[in-house]
Amino acid sequence: MAHVSDNNSESPVVELNLVPFIDLMSVCIIFLLITAVWIQISMIQLGTSVYAKKIDDEPAPSAPTPHAEVPFRIDVLSEGYKIVLGSQVILVPVSGGGQYDHEELTKQLSAVKKVYPDKVDVVVTSEDKLQYKHLIMAMDLLLSAGFPQVTIAPGEVI
C-alpha cells in the first residue's frame, strides 16, 4: 500500500507494495510454461501444405517419375471413403452397421502403392459434419501404407 508520511515535508514518502504484482506475474509465467508443454505434446506432424513454398533444406528428387505427379486424394464422406487417383475414382462404402471399412481402405492403399511406389504425398478432405476420429483414422492408415506427406485440405468436398 502507499504510505504518506505525516511530516510536513515538501515531498511525501510513498512506498509501493509490489508483492501482489510479483505474485500475479509468477502465476502467469507458470501457467504459460505448463501450457506450452502441452501444446508441444499435442502437435501432429504433417507434410507441407499444397499451397506452401517448398523448403530449401529438402533434397531435390534426382529424376521425377511421371507416377509421382499423379494427383492423389482421399475424401472422408458420410457414405465412406472416396479415393481419387488421377481420373480414377474408387469408393469404399461404410458397412451395414455404419462402420467405416478400414480393411478395404488399407487394401486399396496398398494397391495404389504397388502401382505408384514413388508416390508419397496425398491430400485428405473431410465433410464438416463428420466426427474427427474418421479423419484421424484415414491419416493413420495413409501413414502406415507408406504415404508420409499427408495434407489436409480445407473446404467442402466436391
Structural description of this entry:
This protein has 158 residues and is α/β, with parallel strands linked by helices. The chain contains 3 helices and 5 strands; from the N terminus they run H-E-E-E-H-E-H-E. It has helices at 19-41, 102-115, 132-145, and strands at residues 72-76, 80-85, 88-93, 121-126, 149-152. Strands 3-2-1-4-5 form a 5-stranded mixed sheet, covered by helices on one side. The model has no long low-confidence stretch (mean pLDDT 78).
Topology summary:
Elements: H1 19-41, E1 72-76, E2 80-85, E3 88-93, H2 102-115, E4 121-126, H3 132-145, E5 149-152
Parallel strand pairs: 1-4, 4-5
Antiparallel strand pairs: 1-2, 2-3
Number of helices: 3
Averaged pLDDT, please? 78
Largest sheet: 5 strands, mixed
Find the structural class using helix and strand composition.
alpha/beta
- The poorly predicted ranges are none
Radius of gyration equals 28 Å
Strand neighbour order, sheet with most strands: 3-2-1-4-5
What is the element string, with H for helices and E for strands? HEEEHEHE
Question: How widely separated are the two ends?
Answer: 65 Å
Give a count of the beta strands, DSSP E runs of length 2 or more: 5
Report the helical percentage.
25-40%
Shape estimate: elongated
What percentage of the residues does DSSP assign to strands (E)? Answer: 15-25%
